């Protein structure tokens, strides 16, 4: 079974609503370590059916949600066999979210039931196999998410819930109202039954929208007396009678917006996805005259999208200057529609795509220039990369097939001339300054307390997003750059990222672009690179994030699939960039949390990406020993018609790269190996916490009588160890004294009272503020 990574422990404290927290946790459950296969499904077990009342609401915001129950495919509900068909793609119920596998909500069954296949209820047995290909939506302990645990635990929302039956009952009653209510007012105070009962007091605007969204569900969700109170309030505040008028009548009043109906509209604008039925009503009724052509008129938005589609198709066939002017004019005309509810509901994809297209149009008017190589590098690293970023964001603005081709054509019309002009100028500077380019390519090996994170194919613009994301999460990031060597392929460039220059040399020919080890002459490969790092006492980390080992000079870890995905997906890589950024950010945070003082992010090369394919230039095979998409090794004394450069590892061996952004073959939307700012100027980020994080992990607990010896792996000898009956409460300590772990990272705790022998307790590791860094359950006096 794929286990959730839980690298974002505590992140739910930032959730604005319960709906947002549930979605965040489900998406976090999908995250897997590097190299692991993503889960094919998320199994949400709910033995007490506590979450069942929210299923209909969750379905509106999570198209991936499916329910075990009666066969109702239109409601995404069915028996276990049908759910298996959904997971395996044999049944299509909704457009697939590439970042979220099908979610199978299973009321009436627990995670323990599924794990025990023999005792599992027969109706659920077809789903047991998914434990091994999918993952459970559960707590880190493997227990089912109860309502109280999700809201009250530190792993969940971390709300301070009173632990009494009245509060638990009130929480269950208030759950439907809590779903989209702001959580800010519930934080930082003890919540009791009265706090949740207050939520049941009718919010007339919200309840009116819920009634319009589904009259039947609204009536079924409350008592008759409550519905009568609702009608009385609506009659008084909105001059509308739900007992005599229909939701369609309410939609007409909402569109017209007279009196206090504007307040209802503003409430709808805040979260239109929570009320999909309201949008359907507005699309199906004859709107009042005052609503026509405004933001409340779905037809005005649909007409705007149709007009925009035609105009963008024309722009795609224009010369660059004309295409830029047209896109900027269209953005001015359609930008207001991005603030309409229809954009939030996903019905204005082209208006949304105009925002990055307009940024691309602005940036593409200024190719990368500069009188010298240093000037060109500064021009790209200060502002030029923003053109690449805008192109990627425009390409991923919509995944509708018709939109994908259209946006790709517009991006190509604006972006290709900018790429070509920038690349040719950069190539001229590199040719004139080969020596300077070569000296600017070398990287440095890891240093003490530093973990070097190698991210394959991390282009400069993507690294800028990573830096922004880490800065927003409390990290201090220093951004720099260097040049990738020639050619910009992994075999030549990766050894430099690892700082292995002094241990390698080039052969007589550059056919494979691989250097050789100075000792023994074996060709460089990934395994030999790891051997070189180990010889330098650099600690190699796999998927785990652990503190620095004693005596290690530094650390090395590899992550990311940008280059692999680019070769596989071409221009569709744009859709995967966000996921790759999040995984990279999570890995950096995990390394810092584990105790590394800093993480230095390095890469080997960047890449070019262009929808519709990069241009092709001819190069006869007879003059080259090997030929790749964007580079070739010259054969012997052959004289190719294109200019040549020296191979980084042997300046006498000649490399030929195509001019501009051309390739030596047809059909490459993604390529690297040549000379361009995108391929050659690579980022280097140094990431630290604003304040060094303390990290600890309990390794072993050994009891001898009423004394236990605790071994802790940690990066701070002043951390302390305690033994508690309740790990959250210091007053439940049963240790004779709290002990520091010291330089040996071992603490010996004595139990103050023999009466606790056999009791369940928890070893906790504490920092100077008393915060718990790690904990592990134990039994007092256990000799096992």
Helix/strand layout:
Elements: H1 18-29, E1 42-46, H2 55-61, E2 65-68, E3 77-78, H3 80-87, E4 103-107, H4 111-115, H5 130-133, E5 135-136, H6 147-152, E6 160-161, H7 165-178, E7 190-191, H8 193-199, H9 204-213, H10 215-220, H11 224-238, H12 247-256, H13 261-270, H14 276-284, H15 298-315, H16 320-334, H17 341-344, H18 349-363, H19 373-395, H20 401-432, H21 434-439, E8 450-455, H22 460-472, E9 475-483, H23 490-497, E10 504-505, E11 516-517, H24 526-535, E12 538-540, E13 554-559, H25 562-569, H26 577-594, E14 598-602, E15 608-609, E16 624-627, E17 632-634, E18 644-647, E19 650-656, E20 670-671, H27 677-680, E21 681-689, E22 696-704, E23 707-714, E24 720-724, E25 739-740, E26 746-750, E27 760-766, E28 772-779
Parallel strand pairs: 1-4, 1-5, 2-3, 2-4, 6-7, 8-13, 8-14, 12-13
Antiparallel strand pairs: 9-21, 10-11, 14-21, 15-20, 16-17, 17-19, 18-19, 22-23, 23-26, 24-25, 24-27, 27-28
Helix pairs in contact: 7-8, 9-13, 12-13, 12-14, 15-16, 15-20, 16-18, 16-20, 18-19, 18-20, 19-20, 22-26
